[in-house]
Amino acid sequence: MKPIYPLILCAIFGLSACSQPEADNTEASAPDAAMRVNVVAVGKQAATPTLHLTGTVAAKEDVAVGTALSGLKILEVNADVGQRVEKGQVLARLDSVNVQAALRQSEMALAKARSNLNARQAEWREAQATFNRYRPLANEGAVTPQELDQQRLRLESAQANVQAARAEIAQLQSQLTDSRHQRAKAEITAPVSGIISQRAAEAGALTGSDALFHIIQDGEMELAANATADELSVLKTGMPAKVRVRGQHEPLSGSIRLISPQMDSGTRLGTVRIALEKQPALQNGAYGEAEVQLPTQESAAALPVQAVSFADDGQAFVMLVGADNRVKRQAVNIGRQNAEWVEIVSGVNAGARVVKNAAAFVSDGDLIIPVTEPQK
Prior knowledge:
The protein is α+β, with helices and mostly antiparallel strands. The protein contains 4 helices and 23 strands.
């Protein structure tokens, strides 16, 4: 019987020889298991950053309407909140019985004073004529000097009476003017055109020192927004803004009208007034958020916003692609951003490759097949 050992060895070596190519094929196929992932290079990007501000809708010019006549009853109210009024329009009427009585009394007193002036002037003319007649007679000796002096005194007295009558008329005319002004004040009129924003006037109530109405002049509204000192330093009048007001479905267009030069000592905030397009349904006092477009700037390094993720502690990071195409999680510090781009302040250098979509299914150390997408 022949030995079987050579056959066994041959079988073993044969199996090894057959299995070796399969191992080589497995190693060759490893790179094919790497995922194809879009990557983008960190580079400069011209961006138009936006500044977000919050505030309250307010009237550009709020005009208080009241009356100097205190203690008068309000007979009727002709305007209400939300109503548009024109300059000079009667908003309310007051009980003017006493005012009318004072006006009639002033008119009667003035008429009496004018009649008295006519009488005093007649006396003065008579005294003047008598004195003129006595003066030549005194030169001829027909009348005594004492009689001439008596006529002179009479003329001077008549002149003083005329002056007093004229002064009385001037005083009464002033009183009559005041009475007429008082009567006019019994009608509360709109000093400007606009929208009634507040109404305190009620029929039957008595007038006081408080305003009866508030008018938004010309219906012009704006957002009174708060801003820090750093934010104020980059803002300028005329900058465009988009304002979203609670209760409004569409954003409103606006622009910065005024930047307050003074900061609140308590909050350390300043006020920015953003003029808004006219909107009839806009409510005074509503909450609003503004996006102010700042001048276009070129950042040192930027990435698409989807390339940046945030850890639970708020730290921003990117998935950096190394020279060996392996992914590494890299923390970065970010700066300005808009809807598309975010500035990379530090953490990666310009030209570095990062995974474009940070939500891609890649982990630290993964091998990928990068598909490069240059910045547009």
